[in-house]
Amino acid sequence: MACTAETLAAALRAAAAVIAGHRGELIDLDRAIGDADHGENMDRGFAAIVSALDALAPKTPETPAAVMKLAATTLISKVGGAAGPLYGTAFLRASVKLGDAAEVDGPLLVEALRAALEGVQARGKAVGGDATMVDALIPAVSAAEEAAGSDIAAILTAAADAADKGAESTVDLVPRKGRASYLGERAKGHLDPGARSTALVLRAFAEAAR
Amino acid sequence: MACTAETLAAALRAAAAVIAGHRGELIDLDRAIGDADHGENMDRGFAAIVSALDALAPKTPETPAAVMKLAATTLISKVGGAAGPLYGTAFLRASVKLGDAAEVDGPLLVEALRAALEGVQARGKAVGGDATMVDALIPAVSAAEEAAGSDIAAILTAAADAADKGAESTVDLVPRKGRASYLGERAKGHLDPGARSTALVLRAFAEAAR
Amino acid sequence: MKKIINDPKTVVAESLRGLAVAHADVLRVEDDPAIVVRVDAPVAGKVAVISGGGSGHEPLHGGFVGQGMLAAAVPGAVFTSPTPDAVEAAVKATTGDAGALLIVKNYTGDVLNFETAAELAAAEGLDVRSVVIDDDVAVKDSTYTAGRRGVGGTVLLEKITGAAADRGDPLDAVEALARKVIGQVRSIGVALTAPTVPHAGEPSFDLADDEIEFGIGIHGEPGIARTPALSADELVARMVEALVTDLPFGEGDKVLLFTNSMGGTPLVELYLAHGIAERLLAERGIVVERRLVGPYITSLEMQGMSLTLLKLDDELTELWDAPVNTPALRWGV
Amino acid sequence: MKKIINDPKTVVAESLRGLAVAHADVLRVEDDPAIVVRVDAPVAGKVAVISGGGSGHEPLHGGFVGQGMLAAAVPGAVFTSPTPDAVEAAVKATTGDAGALLIVKNYTGDVLNFETAAELAAAEGLDVRSVVIDDDVAVKDSTYTAGRRGVGGTVLLEKITGAAADRGDPLDAVEALARKVIGQVRSIGVALTAPTVPHAGEPSFDLADDEIEFGIGIHGEPGIARTPALSADELVARMVEALVTDLPFGEGDKVLLFTNSMGGTPLVELYLAHGIAERLLAERGIVVERRLVGPYITSLEMQGMSLTLLKLDDELTELWDAPVNTPALRWGV
Ligand SMILES: Nc1ncnc2c1ncn2[C@@H]1O[C@H](COP(=O)(O)OP(=O)(O)O)[C@@H](O)[C@H]1O
Ligand SMILES: Nc1ncnc2c1ncn2[C@@H]1O[C@H](COP(=O)(O)OP(=O)(O)O)[C@@H](O)[C@H]1O
Ligand SMILES: [Mg+2]
Ligand SMILES: [Mg+2]
Ligand SMILES: [Mg+2]
Ligand SMILES: [Mg+2]
């Protein structure tokens, strides 16, 4: 099954529900090594995406790229903090990559994921091992690239599985970007909230694609 | 045994030690229904009396009245709060009553105690039943008057015993003077800190007189 | 207890040292007895407005010493009224022929100690008057209590009488003005947490996480009622109700609204509460013409707030607006 | 969690309403996106100094809007940097031909959001520069971290650049001045308790009754080290040591000493700490020429304090002394 504007919108709504359900968990993760707002920020942003989609309903933006762009600009203008510009850039770069395709197939999806990762890294300057969302995204994109021949659901499932593992890996890292970096060694033993939310969003997309 | 300037000074030192030992208890009593300073205030004042006596040592003021006056002015200038002026007035009135006697006998002691009570009431306008130090002093003075024929130790012991009971009686009262009065019914069930300190001082005097 | 202190016994003295060095342009601190005095005192021909009380309510009173407000402040130990000799020292350091007005908050200790000090000063030939401020509507009338407490209204009283003194009003006029202000100012406070007195080392009362104390003073004494935590809307509505029905304040009245933090309540909450109070007063047709928002009369680190309403007229407004140059209030200079 | 709020989601918006009504003579608040703007903005021919960041640090930044300081402040959600469109709105509301200087505290979120906003504004033909303040010596250098945080120095930077803008300095000069201030200001903070973010509902960290966090920021993140509680003398000595060895500050240097409460620390403790810091600096031959003491950059109700040292010269001193008329800082007017 390929991904249309409608299915992408549905996936975003699904992601919003998942983020809302994990709002408290993400706040707690951020409370331990940051400033206790990541769950609130993400929830505010994704709820705003749902509102933006609702405002257009019963219409949906015409292309998957237009849906992604709507999500990106909503995140940029509603989330704030570090997560807002980083997620916003990821979504924006993905949307650019999607071009005017009416449907997203496996290879295009993989390209969009790669673009998202590059966007986050261009903006935030984090590399793998810095204990950020990048540690969820890098393995996710690699896994997606390996699964590029499969269908969208399989690609996203592979990405989500890898993102989960990547997020887990941040527990043992000393953060070098973002707020957690101020804690140095003291941040060890904690899951990075942005890596966790990245894994959650990818999982929600994968589930929605089934 | 009659009471000289020296024995009075010794009694004041004994009272200072007792107050220091009950500092925490008096703070806790005041914390419950007041502002948590009565133990600190009394301790500061009585410690200052000891310092004032030390500063004169090896001399002692010539008469019991002079010792009392030194204590009174020290309390007035070191205690503050409600207790400072009230205790200060009590001691001052007692000192005036002692006149130029070289020794205090039973009847004079009883008169001095009565003068102290009258001083507190003139200054603080509290009557019996208002749940203040007056509720320890009134029965103490009555008991002293009944025991007026006995020796000083017996008079003070009778006064201290009565003061203890009087202090206890404040537990069931609704305070109408001082800070505890702001609490109204909520102050019921609590011992008044000033009544307790009054009983402690009288007990220390009684013990010192033995 | 965690505090930035060395020793509970030296907290006030050490703190005054910091105040003195931080504001040497405005005030100086004298030791033993400790008093805070305008740097240019005594100011010839002008009434000295003097106040004081237990410490732990900062910036009250030391932070209000300076041109256009207090000539001197007399800080006692934490939550303990100062002794008469300290008050007397403050009077002597600041009072000339124009005399002095003592502003006394209505607590037994303050009243007794200031009374004695006033007698001592009078005995030295100084013209000293006292007024007792008792603006706290939470306290029942004085047949049953020591009388209403002096709380938030004190700040406004000190500013307004200080301004009158500064413009050269004679003592009779400053005293009359003080009585007028006292007659038309009312306050009410609430606490969300208890303060910890340094020498006590433990919080002054225990509140569950879903309880607040309504009708609290500024000394960590429990309030008139312990109630379940309320939304800001409900809480402020109750406070405003208690205030306006007391004086009463009514439609068309011009007022100064003073929204005060008890110390530990952050400004983000305080402004939120202030906004609600303004709205509720507007709904009643009461016109807020001046306002003061911030931690000005506190109870150590206690979380909570108080609202104070002062009925204004042209004279009071003019005196409120007059220049003031103190550590905690400064404008027009 | 006990707070004077209605709903965690509306705290900032409701608080801004209170700020607006309390200080209508100085500022106004615009909604959606929320910005705080000088009442007389845009001021023709003058650079607009603009700052912003997460809320919960009040009076920073909204309390510093007004003549001689900020043209606008952009408040985000509690502890969350504002979004680019909000910053852009503040720029548009205040910026004329003289351009704007954005003061950005060094946090990933602030830097990224303000960067985007600056690009958006530049695209509209406005001359907008940004400076990033990173004065917190507790943070290791940026190979290992997001770089030093912007903390107490921000207040001084906003005052000084605001004064330069007010006297008509061109944007190049205001920007250069900002970089100079950033180059010679350093801060260090400690926490005795944790703040509670309204939407989180629980304290940001747990500290035992005998522990403090040394090297804390202003967002409730734990510090660089948890240490046993210290006496004020020891605590302040460690803080001063961390500061003076960093820039370094040395004998004969003239400085502004800013002793800041993190919100919940009462003034009695803050002045005590300030006095110690003054003494320790004097012992090192460092000359404190100006000081600021109070809660100016806070972390909600967190107990704790920070010290900030700014090396002064005649120009900076003059700009510090220049008139300012904002809710939280006011003199010379
Ligand atoms: N430079 C960066 N590059 C990539 N991700 C980052 C960077 N800085 C922070 N992050 C991510 O952002 C997350 C924090 O987001 P959030 O809490 O919403 O913002 P803030 O840190 O401003 O409070 C971190 O957990 C981390 O994954
Ligand atoms: N009007 C009064 N008459 C007699 N005793 C009083 C009066 N007011 C207060 N007291 C006594 O003073 C005690 C409190 O003293 P203290 O705590 O030292 O002063 P403060 O109340 O000023 O903090 C009360 O427990 C009470 O016994
Ligand atoms: Mg965060
Ligand atoms: Mg007491
Ligand atoms: Mg007291
Ligand atoms: Mg944040």
From TrEMBL, chains A, B:
An MF annotation (GO) of this entry: glycerone kinase activity
- SUPFAM superfamilies membership: DhaL-like (SSF101473)
Q: Name one GO biological process term.
A: glycerol catabolic process
Q: Which PANTHER family match?
A: TRIOKINASE/FMN CYCLASE, TRIOKINASE_FMN CYCLASE
Keyword Iron in the entry? The reply is: no
TM helices/strands, residue ranges: none
Write down the NCBIfam families for this protein, in alphabetical order. Answer: dha_L_ycgS
* Record's protein name: Dihydroxyacetone kinase subunit L
Keywords on record: Kinase, Transferase
Tell me which residues make up the DhaL domain: 6-207
Q: Cross-referenced SMART domains, in alphabetical order? A: Dak2
The organism named in the record is: Amycolatopsis coloradensis
Its GO CC terms are: cytosol
Against InterPro entries, the record matches this protein to: DhaK_L_YcgS (IPR012737), DhaL_dom (IPR004007), DhaL_dom_sf (IPR036117), Dihydroxyacetone_Kinase (IPR050861)
UniProtKB/TrEMBL annotation, chains C, D:
Recorded source organism is Amycolatopsis coloradensis
What pathway annotation does it carry?
Polyol metabolism; glycerol degradation
Keywords in alphabetical order: Glycerol metabolism, Kinase, Transferase
Q: What is the name of this protein?
A: phosphoenolpyruvate--glycerone phosphotransferase
Q: Which reaction does it catalyse?
A: dihydroxyacetone + phosphoenolpyruvate = dihydroxyacetone phosphate + pyruvate
InterPro entries xref list = DhaK_1 (IPR012736), DhaK_dom (IPR004006), Dihydroxyacetone_Kinase (IPR050861)
Q: What class of enzyme is it?
A: transferase
Gene Ontology terms: biological process: glycerol catabolic process
